[in-house]
Design a protein that fits this description.
Chain lengths: 279, 666
């Protein structure tokens, strides 16, 4: 790999990272590198300065924060997959992390990097959107919390400002809710052609609440509100799935046309809802 | 851009601003032949590069009399070879002597030297080309590229070493592609499904310029459009067409996968039309007596097609899979199962030099070996073929060890260096063992012949009184080993009168025929008719590649080859937009499968030795790729045939399958 020339600094703390990001125009954070490095290789990304937070192990944690789990931004996908707290309280996240890329990717890639990159084909942003996660951001003005649904703004665009560092992801515990994430790929390690996250809370014959979010069905993760509203009883999976693509604006690319993606989302949503309802 | 480091060169190259004047693009070979299509080369006034025909028997009469005619049209999509190691070249000049040494990631150090010498004017004798351990080629390195000539010329001009390494993206753009042809195939058959005649017509994209063997590649399949089947009349026509795309050229199988695909798909279409099982129709049409001169004019050396078909059916448990298929249909399962056959026949081991001449290939088809038995009892085997992943070091050492009675670890197989090895024709077309391996075998025979003379002389017996086994000559209680004789030959103190000292022999072998591997491959796919996803769930391959020297090496070739052919059926496709931009510019959207995408292959083998070479071997480097694409696509169509689907373009993407299912349902 021969990227365009850049300067390189290692940040020892979040505050130092924020400061370094402010020291130059066009500075970029480097976490696990699995999104940024390929862009550097192709010279699509040409930052003047790379601020490496890859050695900041104090951002690599999973903590029980009462109603929520608090997950450090530098937590690797492999950690999410195997961490007992994640497995107990947000098993959908553990399950989804295990579907990302391949073992090498899962050992290097981080949840914070995946979220901050804002790629609509990534799995974790969709799951966090379905889970109503909060994203904790530190910037020059201090710390703030952004709901996942407001965080993603467009393709590779997020609520992060040039000097912001995503530090923590807070996720409500799932409790007894049924869940799943269904991902359709051409090859095992590909990005999702379409992915569907479903979380369903039910009391016997009634659905109390449902959250459905879609991967690669628009410039950001898509919350399928119409389908959520259509899911009133456990028998409504197919009906809800039929309207799951209503809010979406899927791309056409070599993995499939927009029409095919809408169809695929419907099939996958029906399967996901049936699984989530029965779990 | 030449610089001291790669990084500097890359940065400096960015400073070059090129203003391109866009020319009209034409990326599709049929479109390129239409009136008004943009002309790629104004000088020619047409995009038609050539038309080549082969005709035998009264085809028109057979079609006129046929009870059943099947007419099919298939598209061989464009493929990108994807050798593990990209291309790369280093040239070291030696200004004092005027010599230049080139290390190149190539399959063809010998042909490269000839060609580069002609192109650059560097005298052939001053040029040494070394192909070190090369990380695969699949035909893409059966070529001489502009970068090699440039590196050579620049090194000569600057008097300094020049190095160039391709990036993967450059490779996708500028290293040759494979396939890209439209096939029309017609079968004339009796009402029972006995094929009488085959007509095949190809329209093949050459790309914008011809690389080393671009126009010849589709012609390597010219004789094979009747497959393993006995027909009386045969008609083949191929038109090469200039397009504004990367040149096509040899890609694993080169012409034969395309031919196999067409005939194997078409015979399934015929089976559906006459209401026969795909197994039954194949048995009805198999070639059965060998050697057999087929309708297209070449002679198939040997084979027993029923044997490998039987073996494959047994491995598969055919009836059980058909039962599963029927039950799924019975219960209207959304997941259908399909079974696809490919009872392929291919010709490889390039080849008789005179046949290569007939298709205007610029070189011969022979190959060479020299065996040098060293005084202390180890052996150098110098070969003209140039492995890049085929395990010549193992297989050729086995051949020599068996004959000379020395251990594998006492044999060094040296290759890929024009300063070390005899002149050869390199490695492609599954030729190394069937041509180069025979040269090794024959050279070893000559060593044994000479050693026998020395043994007879020293043991004071007649040559015919000597027994020879395991590297040891014995007679009347006396014995000499080949190693002892090697030392004797070197000291030359006591040799027969007039004998040249030394124990070294060479052989150059020009085969009298191609070798004709055949086999039965069976793919079983499960198709999710809701998503369109095709899952290859089983793959059975029973190959007859003649005598097998090393079963693991053969299995490795079949595994890799099958996966590569499956990839054409299900994943890989180089896509250009209408402006001639390559859309699939990286492995992100050019889908090379990994081990996770394919099942464990179930391999079997049968063996009918080739009578045209003393080892009885046939080639195996391409059989997997030649066979598997058709097997998988036949399985895909078979799975959906009850719904009325008769064809799906390759690759059978989920979207294409979904659309095909939707279309027949509406």
């Amino acid at each position: 790999m021969i990227p365009a020339p850049f300067d390189y600094e290692v940040a020892e703390s979040v505050d130092q990272a924020v400061e370094l990001l402010g020291s130059r125009d066009d500075a970029k954070l480097l976490a696990g590198g699995h999104s940024l490095i390929p862009l550097l290789r192709l010279r699509f990304a040409r930052p003047a300065l790379l601020v490496d937070i890859g050695r900041m192990d104090d951002l690599r944690y999973v903590r029980d924060a009462g109603e929520q789990l608090a997950i450090g931004a530098m937590t690797r996908h492999n950690d999410l997959q195997h961490n007992p707290l994640v497995q107990e309280h947000t098993p959908i996240l553990s399950h989804t992390a295990g579907l990302i890329g391949d073992p090498q990717v899962r050992h290097r890639g981080t949840i914070g990097g995946s979220v901050a990159h804002g790629d609509p084909a990534s799995d974790l942003p969709t799951v966090l959107t379905a889970l109503d996660a909060d994203l904790v951001v530190r910037g020059p003005g201090g710390e703030r919390t952004v709901p996942a649904e407001e965080f993603f703004r467009g393709v590779f665009e997020t609520a992060l400002g040039p000097q912001d560092v995503l530090t923590e992801i807070r996720i409500p515990k799932l409790g007894a809710a049924g869940w799943t994430y269904v991902k359709f790929t051409r090859r095992a390690q590909d990005w999702a052609t379409v992915g569907v996250a479903a979380v369903v809370r039910r009391t016997n014959g009634t659905i109390d609440a449902a959250a459905i979010a879609l991967t690669n069905m628009g410039p950001t993760p898509v919350r399928a509100r119409a389908a959520e509203g259509a899911l009133k009883t456990p028998d409504d999976a197919a009906g809800a799935a039929n309207v799951v693509a209503q809010e979406s604006d899927p791309p056409t690319d070599t993995s499939g046309s927009a029409d095919y993606r809408r169809h695929l989302a419907t099939v996958l949503a029906r399967r996901a809802l049936e699984e989530a309802i029965s779990r | 851009m030449i610089a001291e480091t790669r990084a500097e060169a890359r940065d400096a190259a960015e400073l070059v601003q090129v203003e391109y004047e866009p020319l009209p693009a034409v990326v599709d070979p049929e479109r390129a032949l239409e009136d008004g299509a943009p002309i790629v080369h104004d000088d020619f006034g047409t995009n038609s590069c050539y038309t080549w025909k082969l005709s035998a028997g009264d085809v028109d009469e057979e079609f006129g009399n046929a009870s059943v005619v099947v007419k099919e049209r298939y598209r061989q999509q464009r493929l990108i070879p994807n050798a593990m190691e990209p291309r790369g070249v280093i040239v070291q000049p030696f200004p004092a002597t005027g010599e230049l040494t080139m290390w190149s990631a190539t399959q063809i150090p010998h042909i490269a030297r000839v060609t580069l010498s002609m192109v650059t004017g560097v005298p052939e004798a001053k040029l040494r080309v070394v192909a070190p351990d090369v990380g695969g080629g699949f035909g893409s390195k059966l070529n001489v590229y502009a970068e090699e000539a440039l590196a050579l010329v620049l090194a000569r001009k600057l008097g300094r070493p020049i190095k160039w390494i391709e990036t993967r993206t450059e490779g996708y753009q500028a290293t040759i592609h494979g396939r890209d042809q439209i096939q029309e195939i017609e079968l004339a058959a009796t009402s029972e499904g006995k094929i009488r005649a085959v007509r095949a017509k190809l329209t093949v994209a050459m790309g914008a310029y011809l690389q080393l063997v671009t126009p010849g590649v589709p012609l390597l399949g010219a004789w094979l459009y009747s497959g393993a089947y006995d027909v009386v009349a045969y008609d083949f026509e191929c038109t090469g067409v200039f397009t504004t795309t990367t040149p096509t050229d040899a890609y694993r199988g080169a012409g034969r996968p395309e031919a196999t695909y067409a005939i194997e798909r078409a015979i399934d279409a015929l089976a559906r039309k006459v209401g026969k099982d795909p197994v039954e129709i194949r048995r009805l049409n198999f070639l059965r007596e060998f050697p057999k001169t087929i309708a297209s004019g070449l002679t198939v050396d040997s084979g027993d097609y029923d044997a490998h078909l039987d073996a494959a059916l047994e491995l598969l448990d055919y009836d059980a899979v058909r039962k599963d298929q029927a039950e799924r249909r019975e219960r209207r399962d959304t997941k259908e199962v399909g079974i696809g056959f490919s009872t392929y026949l291919e010709m490889c081991g390039l080849a008789p030099s005179r046949i290569l001449g007939a298709i205007r290939y610029g070189a011969g088809g022979w190959d060479a070996a020299t065996i040098r038995f060293l005084p202390t009892g180890t052996v150098q085997v110098l070969i003209g073929t140039s492995p890049h992943g085929q395990s010549h070091e193992t297989t050729f050492a086995q051949i020599v060890a068996d004959q000379l009675g020395v251990g594998y670890d006492e044999i060094e197989v040296l290759h890929g260096d024009t300063a070390v090895t005899p002149l050869g024709m390199d490695t492609y077309g599954s030729r190394s063992l069937t041509v180069g391996g025979i040269a090794v075998y024959k050279a070893a025979e000559r060593i044994v012949e000479k050693a026998r003379k020395i043994a007879a002389h020293q043991l004071e017996v007649g040559e015919d009184e000597l027994a020879y086994d395991g590297g040891r000559f014995t007679a009347n209680g006396g014995a000499l080993t080949t190693k002892e004789i090697a030392l004797q030959a070197w000291t030359a103190h006591n040799l027969p009168d007039g004998m040249e000292p030394g124990l070294e022999a060479s052989y150059v072998f020009d085969p009298e025929n191609f070798s004709w591997p055949a086999g039965t491959h069976i793919a079983v796919v499960e198709i999710d008719t809701e998503t369109g996803n095709v899952d290859l769930i089983r793959y059975v391959a029973v190959d007859d590649v003649g005598k097998v020297i090393n079963p693991d090496v053969v299995a490795g070739q079949i595994h890799g080859g099958v996966t590569q052919g499956v990839a054409q059926a299900l994943w890989e496709e180089a896509v250009y937009d209408d402006d001639g931009n390559l859309i699939t510019g990286s492995m992100v959207n050019y889908l090379v499968p990994s081990a996770a995408e394919v099942p464990s292959f179930e391999l079997g083998s049968t063996e009918t030795p080739s009578p045209t070479n003393p080892l009885g071997v046939k080639g195996v480097g391409e059989t997997g790729t030649i066979a598997s694409t058709a097997a998988v696509m036949n399985a895909v169509v078979d799975a959906l045939s009850a719904r009325g689907v008769t064809d799906i373009d390759m690759p059978a993407t989920p979207e294409r399958v979904w659309r095909a299912v939707k279309e027949v349902a509406s």
